[in-house]
Amino acid sequence: MTLAAFGFAGEAWAQRADQNAARAAEDAFGVSYANESVGLYDEEDVRGFSPIDAGNVRIEGLYIDQQADLSYRIVDSSIIRIGLTAIDYPFPAPTGIADFRLPEAPEALVLSPRLNAGTFGDASIEFDVRAPIVGRTLSAAGGFGLYRDDEWFGGTPKVFSGGVSLRWRPAPDTEIIPFWSLDSIWSEEALPTYFTSGAFVPPRLRDRRRYTGQDWATNTSRGSNTGLIARTKLGDWSVAGGLFRSIFAVSRDRTTLWLDLDEAGAGTETVYAAPPSRYASTSGEVRVSRTFTDGPRLHRFHASVRARDQARLYGEAEAVELPRRNIATRAPIAEPSFTFAERTPDDVRQVTGGIAYEGRWKGRGSLNIGIQKTDYRKHVRPPGRDAILSRDRPWLFNLMASIDVASGLSAYAGVTRGLEESEVAPDIAVNRNAAPPALRTRQVDAGVRASLGKLQAAMGVFDVRKPYFNLDGANLYRRLGEVRHRGIEGSLSGNMTPFASIVAGAVLLDPRVIGELVEDGTIGMRPVGTSRSRIVLALDVHPESWRGSSFDLQVTRHGGSFADQANAVRLPSRPTVALGARHRLRLGQREVIARVQVMNLFDSYRWIADSSGGLTYNAGRYVGFSLATDLET
Hints:
Blueprint: H1 21-24, E1 31-32, E2 37-38, H2 51-54, E3 57-59, E4 62-64, E5 77-81, E6 97-101, E7 110-118, E8 123-134, E9 138-148, E10 158-171, E11 174-189, E12 193-196, E13 218-234, E14 237-261, E15 266-274, E16 277-294, E17 297-314, E18 318-321, E19 325-326, E20 344-361, E21 365-380, E22 388-392, E23 395-406, E24 409-420, E25 439-452, E26 455-471, E27 477-497, E28 500-514, H3 516-519, E29 533-541, E30 550-558, E31 561-562, E32 570-571, E33 574-587, E34 590-599, E35 607-609, E36 615-617, E37 622-628, E38 631-632
Parallel strand pairs: 3-6, 12-14
Antiparallel strand pairs: 1-2, 1-5, 3-4, 5-6, 7-8, 7-37, 7-38, 8-9, 9-10, 10-11, 11-13, 13-14, 14-15, 14-16, 15-18, 15-19, 16-17, 17-20, 20-21, 21-22, 21-23, 23-24, 24-25, 25-26, 26-27, 27-28, 28-29, 29-30, 30-33, 31-32, 33-34, 34-37, 35-36
């Protein structure tokens, strides 16, 4: 069936089909759309830390304790806010903020179908709708996606993604936005993770797309997000609030680890089966603001209350060990029966109140000051053991200032203190899935930003410090010291010419672990799995004579990292190259965008270490195709 079969009149206009991260990016620090992303950072990695793991996620600027991924059926884009990009943001966070934006109200009904396929054998269909219901008073956005994925390691999960959001404007300067989304995944094979017996990496797998695990080592999960955002403005005053419910439930939980690998690639395939688990949170924020001007000066005051009520339920896993064999071979067995032990409830309640001030003086600079008091309580009740109660009530603050040095040139500096979550214990830990109490974190950063015609440039330095949690010699996940990420980052973005856009960025990181275990030689001074650098270059070439078609290039280089606590195994840096093109064509009476992209053009191979020392390999060369259009009535 051709896309013209939908039978709507009129030409397509820029909506989902035209999303282009390289052209839309205001800097190189990270922007994402449903099918496009570009930049140094993303929701999982900012300056070597994860905003999602830290709890630094916002929807339309409002706090959410996210447990399930937010579906791009309701999310229009996400942006990473750090450094100067966070100076107009109340209550910034030490490890950056991932801010998700919902679709704006459309002016006309737009249907956006997209067909995707790739050389791994994957295929999917996405269908999104943007619809005015009552003029500009009420509109809706949503859609669904069906995916048959073929993973780079041979897995074949199936995915359904769906969601809907409404925008209701009952009065001028008043807006109410309810939304709901669901992501369901089934038949998802567990990604094999490799642990060696010494200071070496496993041999290269010649066929990295061949699945070597057990047919029954699959996972089934379901994630949902429901929320209501309301905001209004009354003269100088404005009020914004959000209430969110986020649930991630795993009904089938299997993990595949290869343990004690030797240099020839022989090891023990071990499958961990865990009981069903559930991670749920009700969270939200209410913020009252007042804004007024005094000549060239603008003043904005905020009072905010944030809260969350999180409940986690997880259990200990049972292990199934298979006879030693090479990692390139399969040895299928029947699935054994499992008798799971009682699960562990793990609850967190937190309330944070704060006040903040933002000031801007045209031509002079800006100031952002905030202070917060938080009350944190964590209650863990392991079966058959004493309950563990953790409490913390710290004062938190942020101070950031910028100075307009000259026309188009500004300098900034800031300091931030936060209370953030840590990663949960990895699969290989004896206390698997356990979550440490919230961590006191701190950040100092400074830099400059300049406008160079149609290009925007930024450069900054930063120092982020947190308690360091990882595995000890007995595979217990606990605090081993403090980790410090000190580095320099740069960004260049904009239009080099009327027909060429650039996004270029680099971060050079000096990650270091500090503590007694480093001093006595028990562990190395470098944290496991943290890359020392990243360089990104993205070009989008779109001459006017090409009538909307374009060519794009993206080069990414990940710096080296260490794969073990002793820092004896160093993983080298590897660049990857992606080439792509968009071409506008007509099917029937419709304008359609055909997209092709070759990922990992030169089929480079690299081992990637997670924070626990487990190794996985990257995807090989992949060619993806898509057809997309926006059908406007």
